[in-house]
Amino acid sequence: MGLPTPDTGHLRQTEYATVYEPAEDTYLLLDAFENDREELQAQRPTICVEIGSGSGCVSAFLGQVLSPYGALIFSTDINPAANNATRETVAKTPSESVFDQCRTRFVQALDSRLRGNIDVLVFNPPYVVTPSAEVDSTIEAAAWAGGVLGREVLDLLIPQVPALLSPGGRFYLVVIEQNKPDDIIAEFAALGLAGQRVLSRRAGIESLSILRFIRPKL
Amino acid sequence: MRLLTHNMLKCHVKNCTDPDKQYPLRFKDVQIEQIEYEPNEEFLVRMLPRLDWTALVKTAKDLNIAIPDSVPEDPASDQEFLQKLHTIIMETHVTEGSMVCDGCSHEYKITKGIANMLLAEHEI
Hints:
The complex is a heterodimer of chains A (218) and B (124). Chain A is of the alpha/beta class and 218 residues long.
């Protein structure tokens, strides 16, 4: 049963040393996609964006989930090694989607054109609670250090999300309990975007959840 | 980077706000590669309304790629149009070079097919 997890074996090569390896948080997100496979296919997404794609495991898996329908899947990351790792991962994963990578922060440079056009937006943010100074302190830390409440990076994106989504568009977000998921859901509700926890799992010290927000159809 | 992706990129330098100049970004010293890809007409028809056609025409002409000036009334049943569209946005890749903003002259580099849109703190 289930779709295969994309092959990220190439991350063992030294040029990918700074790229976050798929872990329990990644796999929980893949499971959420798989659970939603039917509705995702019915939605027939045309443009998908993964922010901070790292290994590319999630982007590649999304392509599989949407197959046999095709979509354009943009993967952004600030780390060029992650852009390259993503390219390699999606190339190895069979799907009907087309993939392009872009080195940027969040959706900068894409946001203006993609406003109201993103059918599926995905973000597995740097969510670990750390001192503020650790956020973006090194290219490795940028992959996980989230500052106060583990929210400093995510909080920069939240206000932009509702306008980016197309009518019926979805936003999938990975969080841990320390990020205060209920507060995040309330913040999005205030922005007109209803959301809920769709999946939760305990992994070591982390209590992980996937939040899903859907913009109402017109 | 496909021309499809280029159609979605806009200069985001702070204070660069002239909409007629910051988009589309102008290619400079680029290497182009045609990579064959299985056509998917249903996807092309869905993508069509998301494209900025005027920008695509401008870019294609800059690169000496033939492109219809306008989208036909019923693109879904126009095989010839869809084939052209497929070649332009799906199979035409820019592998090296840069993209220049005509508004602020900022140059975004493309390396091994990946555009670097990251700006320094003072540019944002």
